[in-house]
Write a structure and sequence with these properties.
By secondary structure, the protein is α/β, with parallel strands linked by helices. The protein has one domain: Alpha/Beta hydrolase fold, catalytic domain (Rossmann fold, 3-Layer(aba) Sandwich), CATH 3.40.50.1820. Strands 2-1-3-4-8-9 form a six-stranded parallel beta sheet, with helices on both faces. Strands 5-6-7 form a three-stranded antiparallel beta sheet. α4 links the parallel β3 and β4. The chain is globular, with a radius of gyration of 20 Å. It holds the Pfam family Abhydrolase_6. Keywords: Signal.
């Protein structure tokens, strides 16, 4: 075998390795961590849109009993994925993905009207720094869990949803442990991974100025959408566009 043949084979091998690596880096898995005081069912429309575009979408139904429990629930779903993952978090889900996103399978992060904490911060510390306009949070009788007053829920959480949808969300909301809201975050994944953020400009559950400030600090690619806190349900096409844009950017 002469030198030219060896060179040709070496080039062919190198090209095939690069092609395999590029294919392996393609991000087709989307894992969504829903927020507190809701569950993953509100993501149905956005999920359908993303799957129609060729993505594999899985939604974590974390218990919201503690940040540790919720990170563990997210990791169990990450374990099921074949290939790199784009991790998406809404609201409190942003707290969860900030730590769970340190998993080696996570290629990038998308924060959807979400908390985007730095090390040592908690949901409570961030929320109190720039209070939201909707402040109708109640404690359960045992003092361990929080929920939104059902009468105020439609206006505070999903003012741009059809009334019957917002009222159903109020009835089906998942109560959040106070412990989860008070938990401090460790090393944030957004410091080592690319991130994207959606600011819901009519959000009454998280102050939009806080969403902007957190995204700016993290260097996230920001998209602003005129929507309530339930932007994932009221504007599913626009939210899916941002998620798809992030996945495609990570695949380049």
């Amino acid at each position: 075998m002469n030198r030219r043949t060896l060179s040709t084979l070496a080039l062919a091998f190198a090209t095939s390795v690069i092609a395999v690596a590029a294919h392996a880096a393609e991000v087709k898995n989307i894992v969504i961590v829903h927020g507190a005081l809701a569950d993953g069912s509100g993501w149905r429309k956005a999920t359908d849109i993303l799957e129609d575009r060729g993505f594999n979408v899985t939604i974590v139904q974390q218990p919201i009993t503690s940040l540790t429990d919720d990170i563990a629930a997210t990791r169990r779903v990450l374990d099921l994925q074949d290939g790199p993952v784009l991790l998406v978090g809404h609201s409190y889900g942003g707290i969860v993905i900030t730590e769970a996103g340190n998993d080696d399978r996570v290629a990038g992060l998308v924060y959807v009207a979400a908390f985007q904490p730095d090390k040592g911060e908690s949901l409570l510390s961030l929320a109190s720094s720039k209070p939201a306009s909707g402040m109708n949070i109640r404690e359960t009788k045992d003092g361990k869990f929080l929920y939104i007053d059902p009468a105020a829920f439609p206006n505070d959480f999903g003012a741009d949803l059809p009334k019957d949808e917002a009222e159903f969300l109020a009835k089906s909301q998942v109560f959040a442990a106070k412990e989860a809201f008070a938990a401090k975050v460790g090393d944030p994944a957004w410091k080592t991974r690319k991130s994207w953020a959606i600011v819901a400009t009519a959000d009454r559950s998280i102050n939009p100025e806080l969403e902007r400030a957190m995204a700016s600090r993290a260097g996230s690619d920001v998209t602003e959408i005129e929507a309530s806190h339930a932007v994932f349900a009221s504007q599913p096409e626009k939210v899916a566009d941002v998620i798809a844009k992030a996945a495609n950017a990570l695949s380049e």
